[in-house]
Amino acid sequence: MVDYGINFWSDNDFIIEDGQVKINYKTKPAIIDIVKKVREEGYRGPLLLRFPHLIKKQVDKIFTHFETSIKQYHYKGQFKAVFPLKVNQFPNFVLPLVELSQNRCYGLEAGSKAELIIAMAYTNKGSPITVNGFKDKEMISLGFIAANMGHEITLTIEGLNELETIIEVAEEMGKPCPNIGLRIRLHSSGIGIWAKSGGINSKFGLTSTELLEGIRLLEKHKLIEKFTMIHFHIGSQISDISPLKKAMREAGNIYAELRKMGAKNLKSVNIGGGLAVEYTQHEGSPNRNYTLDEFAGDVVFSLKEIAKNKKEPEPDIYIESGRYIAASHALLVAPVLELFSQEYDEKALHLKDKNPQLIEELNELYNTVNEKYAIEYLHDSLDHMESLLTLFDLGYIDLQDRSNTEILVHLIIKKVIKILKHKNHSDIIRIQEQVQERYLLNCSFFQSLPDYWGLEQSFPVMPLDRLNKRPTRSASLWDITCDSDGEIGFDLNKPLFLHDVDVTTEEYFLGFFLVGAYQEVLGMRHNLFTHPTELSVEFEEDGTHSVTNLLEAQTILDVLDDLDYDTKEIERRLKQRIEDSELIDDETRKEVLGQLYVMLSENGYLRTITNGERK
Ligand code: PLP
């Protein structure tokens, strides 16, 4: 059976049982059952499912691995962590995160004023807040307000001008002053599509010369005792551990040197994020070459060695990995609306009394194809199709002949795939690239998988059921935006096979896993498709689960309101146009208006398919 590489990417969070994907926790509910139940309540379109227990699992994992390494190496510094809000600021993620990590020294990282407000409101008392990114005087003042609230906050300086502003605000606002961190610009950078954050040409951080100047400024203004942390980040999703090791040596030595220069309260090294998530569905193409064990061990060991050699105390270690914490907690479920070759049905075939010779032959191939000659007939049919299409271009056959050609060839392909589905025939695999089925999904890739659109980052995708049946169709996926970029094409190197289903009579859902990091907030409203309806699946102690935090995707009127349309004016204009129209009789006017109001109050994803069934 095809398992969609679940053992590579799922970390045992999801399993396949009884032909369904199940949440591998407590009573192990099938995801499809949860989806169907929510849909029965009238929620249509794509659904974003959140699993808070997986947030806790990831937080616990990071802490236990670092704490184990700390024990193993008799390391004297502590381990602390912050969640970078930019990875996911949605309340139904952040609030459980904060609640479930109460017993840990786990805080929030902010990169903007709005994120800082979230951090100030929700960070558990005693847990750290770090502030990165460019800051103006207002944002620095917010940091002082946070310190006044009792937060353990560190403002990380990205450039000397920010330090000058801190000095200015400190003079104006007095104590308590937030801790100060300096972001260092390392020569080392990560590897991969997100490696730009590191390296000497990166957007952020102080060069060695600027660091020295920074220390002089801090000393001059008697703020050196507030300088407690150095920070670096070599990029998200580090695929190879070696740049991290190099960065650790570079940062560790900078830490020791700065202490020797008089930064005696410098006691923390913040290693940023970078811990990679395994997204791969295919053997032999892993996204990372290390385990969390190795990652934690390397960080702790290298800092220990440097501290020992330079005779400085072992610093506290901060980590800001967010992708690793958030990715697994969210799953996008998209209903399949249509299979494009479904129209190539025997019922649609209208053979004439007298057909062109090649069409007669195609019909013959279709009726007589068998296992022995399957591949040969397939080749013949593709060959015939080429010739018939040329004949059409030259004006020798008509549109009905062309339609019959397309239908017969698709029928032959389907029959051959069915006959040979248990064999791994290389011809079949090759031919499947040419004869992909296009699955239309009720979602927007721009909104829900923006990293696929922008960076070709793929996410594990699989059907939620029928997993005890062999999928036979090589699949390319289309979303419902009017944009040809809204497509995940079939890739022979990472092939996706799906089931041949008749969606007019049965439901078929695809799940995109590991979409909890970055996708939600980076998602864009192309064609005005908005954040999908979301819900959380929460488990009780006794193992039962319930759906909570159900939040429907925005209504059409709300979407327009967000764009600053005057929605009252829109409603008034629509009503007026219906009233003025001579094409609608008086009896139906009210009905049409009613229909229109219902649509305005629903979300904008698709709801109907051809036979009127609501999707
Ligand atoms: N810290 C900083 C400064 C970052 O720029 C980022 C993101 O690139 C992170 C943390 C989060 O890293 P990750 O995506 O590996 O979780």
TrEMBL record:
Bilayer-spanning residue ranges: none
Cofactor: pyridoxal 5'-phosphate; Mg(2+)
Modified residues (N6-(pyridoxal phosphate)lysine): K86
GO BP of this protein: L-arginine catabolic process; putrescine biosynthetic process from arginine; spermidine biosynthetic process
CDD domains in UniProt: PLPDE_III_ADC
Source organism superkingdom: Bacteria
Enzymatic class: lyase
Keyword Lyase part of the UniProt annotation: yes
Domain Arginine decarboxylase C-terminal helical: 557-606
Active-site feature positions: C482 (proton donor)
Family: Belongs to the Orn/Lys/Arg decarboxylase class-II family. SpeA subfamily.
The protein, known as: Arginine decarboxylase
Source organism of the structure: Wolinella succinogenes (strain ATCC 29543 / DSM 1740 / CCUG 13145 / JCM 31913 / LMG 7466 / NCTC 11488 / FDC 602W) (Vibrio succinogenes)
Phylogenetic placement of the source organism: Bacteria, Pseudomonadati, Campylobacterota, Epsilonproteobacteria, Campylobacterales
